[in-house]
Amino acid sequence: MYSLILLGKRSTDADDVIPRDAQKEPKLTVSYLVDSVGIPIKFAESILKEVSSKDKCNPNSVLNLLRSYDFTDSQISSIITTDPELLMEDAENSLCPKLKFLESREILSSRLNDIVTRVPKILRMEEEKSMITYYDFVKTITLTSSRSDFYKVCELYPYIESSIRKVIEMGFDPFAPKIFDATVVVCTLSNETLEERVNIYKTLGFDVRDVWEMFKKCPTFLNISEKKITQSFETLKKCGLVEEEVISMFQKSPQCIDFSELDITQNFEFLKGCGLVEEEVLSMFKRYPQCIGFSEKKILNAVETFLGQGFSKDEVMMMVNREGVVSIPVVLEFSMEKMIVPRCNVIKALTSKRLLKTEVSSMFSVLICPDEVFLERYVSKHDDQELVDELMSIFTKDQ
After folding, report:
1. Are 29 and 35 contacting, i.e. CB atoms less than 8 angstroms apart?
2. Record keywords: Transit peptide included (predicted)?
3. Does pLDDT of 247 surpass 90?
4. Same domain, yes or no, for 272 and 234?
5. 248 and 303 share a domain?
6. Is residue 39 part of a domain?
7. Is 368:328 a contact under the CB 8 Å cutoff?
8. Are 221 and 214 in contact (CB under 8 A)?
9. Which of 8, 59, 190, 258 is 20–30 Å from 278 (CA)?
10. Does 140 fall in a domain?
């Protein structure tokens, strides 16, 4: 099996990338999985519990192997979260040959990594033919440019075609970015299981149409267990939200159902500890449900980034004022390096040159406007071309 692995482009042998001396490897702990790979804490706990029950498995070897193939921590986190049983695979004798085999079919390693991240179960397929078919299908479908091409590709893979057509019948656009996630869900869950998951949401007050609209936004939400669904629902109600508000939140952002009870309660208490009252925190949750997953570290890092750029504490508070964050909490998810800091640096430069006709009382409006609006309002409107070039240089620095 996998007779083509010798065609792999890497000169590194499995022995070189999979340490045999276990004492030199970091101990696999919950904190290690959370800090080094970014796996949610509750999920890391369940993974560790499962791994500890297996006598012959070396999860560190799996992580080391994926890193040797240049998978990013974010990709590894996605792979392990989607298919945690991969950590219990034999890295040297099972996973490594498969990765080499798949690599022999690719020119760009980034394509390999992207496809394996999308469908990690491919690494647990035992039949070479099945692996080739599934891999080539995912690869080919990403290159199709028209609806007719899409259906032609489907016809070439009749073990997959029925699932694709079923997803489309559910209302999915065949060219929607999440078509692959939707197909994987339909392929892996039986009709009975899908019906059970839909019924769970019906008992919680969701309309069937709502469930399928949520499916289009985040297909993998149907993979979430009944225990996790009800736990997230009840945790938010304990925080002070009523049933209709929780339903509305999940309709907007179904991926939030997967946040753990610990994530939600810790975030809720942390935001209150920052000086917000309970009503303000709940308002943030309702306006932008994803913020229930913002970690304390993420928020503190945002403030530290400002301070590290030379902004004073007063300036930081001006930029992300209380009223602004509560009314539009999405600002906490903006990229510090690519969006917030460049804009703030332009405003600082204009302020130092006394070129702002009216003082910016709050940076919030500056942060949420589109790039083109910001550039027109604060950069390109100036008559001095040297000044425009200088401000543009500040804005694009390190981007």
Report:
1. no
2. yes
3. yes
4. yes
5. no
6. yes
7. yes
8. yes
9. 258
10. no
CA 240 to chain centre: 27
Is residue 249 located within the same domain as residue 339?
A: no
Distance CA 347, CA 182 (A): 44
CA distance 362 to 289: 24
Same domain, 205 and 237: yes
Q: What percent of the chain has pLDDT over 70?
A: 67
C-alpha to C-alpha distance for 122 and 130, rounded to whole angstroms = 9
Q: Which two tokens stand for residue 364?
A: 């919030």
The CATH number of residue 108's host domain is: 1.25.70.10
* Residues of the domain holding 374: 298-396
Same domain membership, residue 24 and residue 10 = yes
> Residue 127 is encoded by which pair of tokens?
């039949």
**pLDDT tens-digit profile of 5-41?**
222 334 344 344 433 333 345 566 777 777 667 676 7
pTM, two decimal places = 0.51
Locate 5 and state its tokens.
């692995």
Which residues, other chains included, contact 259 with Cβ-Cβ below 8 Å and sequence gap of 6+? 40, 232, 292, 293
Can you give the pLDDT at residue 61? 87
**CA-closest candidate to residue 316, choices 329, 297, 303:** 303
CA proximity to 209, closest of 262, 164, 170, 248: 170
Residue 56, helix vs strand vs coil: coil
Given 89, 123, 157, which residue is the final one in a domain? 123
Number of helical (H) and strand (E) elements in the chain, helices listed first: 24, 0
Q: pLDDT tens, 207-240? A: 988 898 898 888 888 888 888 899 999 999 999 9
Tell me the three state secondary structure of residue 186: helix
CB < 8 Å & 24+ apart, contacts of 103-109: 103/8, 103/9, 103/10, 103/69, 104/4, 104/5, 104/7, 104/8, 104/9, 105/4, 105/132, 105/135, 105/136, 109/9, 109/69, 109/70
**DSSP state at residue 27:** P
- Domain presence at residue 169: no
CB contact at 8 A, 89 and 80: no
